[in-house]
Amino acid sequence: MTENKKVLTWLEEMKALCKPEKVVWIDGSEEQLEALRAEAVATGEMIKLNQEKLPGCYYHRTAENDVARVEDRTFICTETKEEAGPINNWMAPSEMYAKLNALYDGSMAGRTMYVIPYSMGPVGSPFSKIGIELTDSIYVVLNMDIMTRVGKAVIDALGKDGDFVKCLHAKKDVNPDERYIVHFPQDNTIMSVNSAYGGNVLLGKKCFALRIASYQGMKEGWMAEHMLILGLENPQGEVKYICAAFPSACGKTNLAMLIPPEFLKEKGYKVWTVGDDIAWLRVGEDGRLYAINPEAGFFGVAPGTSEKTNFNALAATKKNTIFTNVAINEDDMTVWWEGLDKNPPENAIEWKGAKVNGKEYIAEGNKLAHPNSRFTAPAVNCPCISKEFENPQGVPISAIVFGGRRAKTAPLVYQARDWNHGVFVGATMASETTAAAAGAVGVVRRDPMAMRPFVGYNMADYFQHWIDMGKKISNPPQIFNVNWFRLDDEGHFMWPGFGDNMRVLNWIIDRCDGKVDANETAIGFVPNKEDLQLEGLDIDDATLTELLSIDKEVWKEEVKDQREFFAQFGDKLPKEIKDEVDNLEKKLS
Ligand code: GTP
Ligand code: SPV
Ligand code: MN
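^ thats the input. predicted complex w/ guanosine-5'-triphosphate below
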């Protein structure tokens, strides 16, 4: 397949280590992929779903102990601990390589090693980067084929001496005690062992496109972010692009594919999806920030996805999709998850594989689908995919939006005063944890820029990189913060969310265009109620007032917590960030 000596040398070394029975290069051809699907069905690794209702769709179940990213087993192995910073797990590279080599030794005996050449970003784009993943899992091959650009064209683009990110995955026996997701940013190397769950094994995604890429971006002057990218089209047909960073399972896929409320749709407003999870950003010649989505598919949260909440995502899953850990409706071999509709199948197979009466099972308080069950769907299936999706130059960004799940504290939306204040707003993000990572759910934690689990180096240097980038962007995006998740005293969401978030996006674009005034507060600019398009919205004035209010006493507590979080970075914390905390405290008093 290739004459690239770096590839061939590395492949020989990894073969000698893992000792597979054979090695198969993935060329991206449909014949090869179809044969792999048939093999996976024959061995039980995948289940073929109803091919009339869900053509090209398959089902996969992971081990019960292997259903989410494992942050406590994810490592950044830089030469020094300081380069990895206080947030990341670290081990000295030599020590980690020794540990891993023992685990990989002979790990593929009697198995096939698949070689997946893949591109993050359109092949040949100046933004794009190449990786090669070695894996012994057909499930990984088939997912990578949906999530990235795979095959011969990538090898051609790599050429005789191009560089690539080395990715090794061995499934082994998915032993959680020997599970490691390890990054060596200085060696362009990723090693994953003893898992078969998406975020741990689709190494182009979080491991490369965020952890390794954030390190590359810091060195090379660009940014890799946990952001969706959407285009907002107004009735005049102009499209403005927005990036938004929300933590895992906090609404990126939903916002990226939003359908506006009826009265805005009638006027001609539309949303186009460029990306739902990851953005790579570079400064363009015109001094604006440009973004591409390095991925080719969506690895989306299934529960809560319905025709009502996210019509476009659901439509994207109707063909050539792999479902992981959802429930099966045995009557017609289709899929089901909580929130799809109000009709759980009676003859159901729940996500762990037991046959149950779905209605009774749910009535007893069980879940049919795992809360982090996912679909892997090709982006081209999405009815609202942007025509700029494949644009190798990316799209110009007008606004960056941060957000998370905050039951209290954060108002519906506010705008930062300038770039550095915006960086501070991102750096002080906090959100309640979700099922996307192993561990407790619903605990508020600091998650700067939604990148806490994904920064491949010291987070203090990452803040500095954001500040430095600001100096290079002569025409920077405006920065905002949103919170769709504010709760009332009874624990109900105060804001309807989903399609109605379009009302907030329109205000954001109006602010970027200088069309509306705003109310300046200690934390930033908050909308005047009359500037939000509220037609057709069932919300009373008191609720709206509450959603836009800032409780100074609560925010004073917030500042204390911010200071505590920042303290761990010591002298490495950029002065600009420290100044912003002082400034906020002053404005609150
Ligand atoms: P990752 O793929 O893990 O990075 O997640 P994501 O940010 O793409 O999250 P996603 O859009 O899949 O949403 C996760 C959950 O949040 C789903 O259960 C949604 O139903 C819910 N959700 C999304 N948007 C909203 C909203 O505006 N309001 C409320 N209340 N819930 C929302
Ligand atoms: C996330 O957890 O943020 C995801 C899913 O998007 S995973 O690919 O598992 O990281
Ligand atoms: Mn994500």
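The first helix runs from residue 5 to 18.
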